[in-house]
């Protein structure tokens, strides 16, 4: 592998992050509960990490601002457009996975 400079690594990581965000915006059919059950994180987790990164750099960012960035629109609007009701099975899976952690 090519030896990367710190700046190159930052740029590559940032590009990969932007691609992940774009992919999640495009795949609004994938519900957050599904992401949590399969991968252990969801769009809300990602927005919390985004806000945490801003906080660590002493940059002011609200939870809603972070969610707007990740979702590409206000969170409440995304929920109304795309969020489906969680089935009992999905909820049970979520509870089971949470206990396993």
UniProtKB/TrEMBL annotation:
InterPro entries, sorted: SMc04008-like_domain, SMc04008-like_sf
Gene3D superfamilies from the UniProt entry: SMc04008-like
Domain SMc04008-like: 30-95
Tree of life domain: Bacteria
Protein name from the UniProt record: DUF1244 domain-containing protein
Annotated source species: Allorhizobium terrae
